[in-house]
Design brief:
It is built from seven helices and ten strands. By secondary structure, it is α/β, with parallel strands linked by helices. It has a single domain, classed as 3-Layer(aba) Sandwich (Rossmann fold), CATH 3.40.50.300. The strands form two sheets. Strands 6-7-8-3-9-10 form a six-stranded mixed beta sheet, sandwiched between helices. Strands 2-1-4-5 form a four-stranded antiparallel beta sheet, with helices on one face. Helix 4 packs across helix 5 and helix 5 packs parallel to helix 6. The longest helix is centred in the C-terminal third of the chain and has 16 residues. The mean pLDDT is 94. Keywords: ATP-binding, Nucleotide-binding, Transport.
């Protein structure tokens, strides 16, 4: 089976004070469909830069990236945006919800860029809210929701476009311990239902939910371990 994503000798550097500062140094990485992966590492290790490249939010300075078999490093900005919208569902630490839009409007927002009618968009948005247990909050604004509920709306938004992969950047970073357990149980259920999940985290107990843990240090993969999931 074709991997969902494949990186070969990916490098990334940034120009600072007239010098090229390396952030990623030759990353080789393959992730298959229905994998549940945590990317960990200390601050400044390059894991956020790696996530941005995986999410087609940034380009490598060198190397190749295939997403579902499609080379993406050679695409222009419009084509990259199309790939993001079709293939990737993002979940962020700070939720990134539209404050004046309801839970349903937030959930179905990615579908505004698809060729489908309003009724279909609303149905798919409601289906996504049902999947995260928030159908009864569809008409609520983010300010009327708890932190855990807002993150569930963000996950529904990520799911609404039926993406090939979910990319989650510290998705429990702003949540208390009880809500964190609830959100991770939801991710566990989504993975069991067939989703491919890649999660950036610095928390060991979050990484323990995943069956594969990749550690990034100094811009390189320093460890890549597969293991049985807890529970």
């Amino acid at each position: 089976m074709q991997p969902i994503l494949e990186l070969q000798q990916v490098h990334k550097h940034y120009a600072m004070a007239g010098e090229q500062v390396p952030v990623l140094r030759g990353i080789d990485l393959t992730i298959d469909r229905n994998e549940y992966v945590a990317i960990t590492g200390p601050s400044g290790s390059g894991k956020t830069t790696l996530m941005n490249i995986l999410g087609c939010l940034d380009r490598p300075s060198a190397g190749s990236y295939l997403l579902a078999g499609q080379p993406v490093t050679c695409l222009d900005e419009r084509e990259m945006a199309g790939v993001r919208n079709r293939a990737i569902g993002f979940v962020f630490q700070s939720f990134n919800l539209m404050s004046r839009a309801t839970a349903l409007q937030n959930a179905m927002h990615p579908l505004l860029y698809r060729k489908m009618g309003r009724a279909e968009r609303q149905q798919r948005g409601m289906d996504a809210l049902c999947k995260v247990g928030l159908a009864d909050r569809a008409g609520h604004l983010p300010s009327q929701l708890s932190g855990g509920q807002r993150q569930r709306v963000a996950i529904a938004r990520a799911l609404c476009g039926s993406p090939s992969i979910l990319l989650a950047d510290e998705p429990t970073g702003n949540l208390d311990s009880a809500t964190t357990r609830d959100i991770m149980a939801l991710f566990d259920a989504l993975w069991a239902d067939g989703s491919t999940i890649v999660m950036i985290t610095h928390e060991t107990d979050i990484a323990d939910h995943c069956h594969r843990v990749i550690r990034i240090e100094d811009g390189k993969v320093s460890a890549d371990r597969r293991r049985q999931r807890n529970g």
